[in-house]
Amino acid sequence: MPPCGMPENITSSSSCCAGCIAVQDSRIKAGRTMVLEIKNLRKIGNGTIKDIYQHPVHAGQIIKTVQPAIVASDGGFARHGWLKRNLHQGIYRQFRREIIQYLQLCKTHYGTGQFTFPVETPCGLVATDHGLGLVTEKITGPDGQGWTLEALARDTPLQSRHYEALERFFDDCVRLHIVFGEVNIAGLMYTESRSEQPEFVLVDGIGEKLLIPIRAMSARINGHYVRKVQRRIMAQVAQLQVERGFLS
Question: Which Pfam families does this one have (predicted)?
């Protein structure tokens, strides 16, 4: 069945939706699995490890892939030794941590039916010719572009609504027992369209990274660590505001 859900016996492309045609055009066949071709996707960002692409059908979703240049043929990071490359899920460990954190949050709040948290919502996995891709919600600012806290603090004099949203983010992370991996100022994104108020959403560094998951096991220990990260990030925000002349 095509991605749009139309019956397979409809063969005319004019009968299919534009989004379905876009997906078909961006896919190659690998056995029975349909694989998205990265060359046909629109790249909208990247980090030191991952590339980020616009989902070809869903405007509110993105696809994250691990950069092939840093991946060994066995699916581990090329810079790691053989033993570390073959531990757990290799390059996909970050995807696993994020998904597990979201599942834990949904489990904890099953009784209230809450599915949205101050972390990006994972939407699934997709095969690409750059390996497995993690599909997540797309976080955008008021102008429709992605605003990281780092870019916001560097380019804009922050207002009370920004500081209040940032304070609320860390308070919620403590209250909800959201476990941080390696959270930095570039991993928080600002939006005003996700809920009825300005908010920051964590899009990177989500989930327990320690071999012994003490922060996942203890809300108290985790809360102390979240506050430590908060102090570091607030200091970085203040420094950027001073350097740009927004604060004296």
Answer: YrbL-PhoP_reg (PF10707)
